[in-house]
Specification:
single chain; Flavocytochrome C3, Chain A, domain 1; 6-stranded mixed beta sheet; elongated
Length: 485
């Protein structure tokens, strides 16, 4: 089968919020653009298609006060003080090993924060709107707004704009490798079409915006470890994210960034057909594994601040599945049902032993666990479910820090929960202009990246910033491409 050859100014790999933001920005800058999307047209958009697109903002013109602070607090464990000392100088004076370090550069984060309002303004110019939206989290430790119509509204509008501006989207087309010119500059991509034929797309610049690797079991196991077999994407769009953009850039010499051994986790009901079938009621009950034992503090703080870390812990339990056990005292919590998005009802029984039998846990063990928990709960005069109450258990291992109320009001209920992968943390190192840098901190000419393909997060995800990251750095990538020779 002959190789098809195409030429363009910019080729964008990926058709989610990052790729489309890059494509539309570049088209507005006068470039010819081709976008590659491995899915069929009706399924385009990767993770963005399935998200509500929450944004860490006070309103559509102001970011939350803790935006940069949260990134700084979660920039990597045990950072070398020599790195921190060097970043106090200007970026141009950083040594190569600091420019290539996997932590999130302060310049990148400050640029991110600075560009958010203008990026939202740019999206609003297409008729998109943003503001307070219903949220499934019962508590909020920061400000959040969302896009009206969620991520789907964003990508559908930007996809349409690509066509209006004369861009081209190739569906069912997968980028496989980077092309180079005689000087070694990245010069486009080699890809495979739906019929198996090869297409070489030559371009002055290439933007990798093809997501993480949560849909690739081989990369998940390589970086996350054997427990990867117990983790699945949170929504269907994640299965399209197979990591080729990250792999081909790393093979070409790009510096890795972000925490490759981790991911943004959400607790979901594995029985449900719904996308993002989250179960966030567990701070008000107890979590047990298949052995019927508690294994973690269910309520170290509000659920919105801790579900990422707690959700990851589920994958370490036997078979990667746990159960939240709660009773009818849950009715004391206003709107508690909004914290559960599964379309499958909970298991229910008038006795703990009966509930254990339904779950497949030894009834005697679960009864012992619940009895021990109940005995460790404090006396409580007032129950304030949306405020930290320091009503901690005593004498348990582990203790529960807040909202420790005995489970004594039947019927008892349980949801199974697994750790679902919203997106992986590991990706490519970029500078504040979205240019990929190599292992010596040098810009790789012709190569840019945006969205989940960029490694930015460590430890705990800075909530409600992923869609913003895609839009902001997609815009930056498109702008940079339009300015480069």
């Amino acid at each position: 089968m002959p190789v098809e050859h195409l030429e363009t100014d910019l080729v964008v790999v990926g058709c989610g919020i990052a790729g489309l933001s890059a494509a539309v920005t570049a088209l507005q800058g006068g470039l010819k653009v081709i976008v590659l999307e491995r899915s069929a047209e009706e399924d385009f958009g990767g993770n963005t298609r399935w998200t509500e697109a929450y944004m860490r903002m006070k309103n559509d013109a102001e970011i939350a006060d803790d935006f940069e602070e949260h990134f700084a607090l979660n920039s990597g464990l045990n950072l070398d003080p020599n790195v921190l000392a060097r970043i106090n100088t200007g970026y141009d004076d950083w040594p190569a090993w600091v420019k290539a370090h996997p932590f999130p550069d302060p310049e990148v984060i400050s640029t991110f924060a600075e560009k958010v309002p203008a990026t939202i303004g740019w999206l609003k110019a297409f008729g998109l709107s943003f503001g307070p939206q219903p949220i499934y989290l019962l508590t909020q430790n920061t400000h959040r707004i969302a896009a009206s119509g969620g991520g789907l509204a964003l990508i559908e509008r930007l996809n349409k704009e690509v066509g209006v501006l004369g861009g081209r989207i190739l569906y069912r087309t997968t980028a496989e490798d980077l092309l180079r010119d005689d000087s070694g500059r990245i010069a486009g991509v080699r890809c495979t079409a739906d019929d198996g034929g090869r297409i070489d797309i030559r371009a002055r610049n290439t933007v990798l915006a093809s997501g993480g690797f949560q849909g690739n079991s081989e990369m998940m196991t390589r970086y996350i470890g054997p427990k990867a077999s117990r983790i699945r994407p949170v929504a269907r769009g994640g299965y399209y994210n197979k990591g080729e953009g990250i792999r081909m850039a790393l093979d070409a010499g790009a510096a890795p960034a972000g925490e490759f051994g981790s991911y943004h986790a959400e607790p979901v009901d594995p029985r449900s057909l719904e996308a993002e079938a989250v179960v966030f009621i567990y701070p008000y009950g107890i979590l047990v594994n298949k052995e019927g034992r508690r294994f973690i503090d269910e309520a170290p703080g509000t659920v919105d601040a801790h579900y990422d870390r707690i959700g990851r812990s589920f994958a370490d339990q036997p078979d990667g599945i746990v159960y939240v056990i709660f009773d009818q005292s849950v009715e004391d919590i206003p709107r508690w049902r909004t914290s559960i998005r599964s379309d499958v009802p909970p298991l229910e029984s008038p006795t703990i032993e009966g509930l254990a039998s339904q779950i497949g846990i030894d009834p005697e063990t679960l009864a012992e666990t619940v009895s021990g928990f109940n005995a460790a709960c404090p006396e409580m005069d007032d129950f304030t479910p949306f405020e930290l109450d320091n009503a901690a258990t005593a004498g348990l291992l582990p203790n529960k820090s807040h909202w420790s109320r005995p489970l004594t009001k039947p019927p008892y209920m349980a949801y199974p929960i697994i750790s679902a992968n919203c997106f992986t943390f590991g990706g490519l190192k970029v500078n504040a202009s979205a240019q990929v840098v190599d292992k010596d901190g040098r810009v790789m000419p012709g190569l840019l990246a945006a969205g989940e393909t960029v490694g930015l997060y460590h430890q705990v995800y800075t909530g409600s910033t992923s869609v913003l990251r895609g839009a902001v750095f997609g815009r930056i990538a498109g702008t940079t491409a339009a300015s480069l020779p």
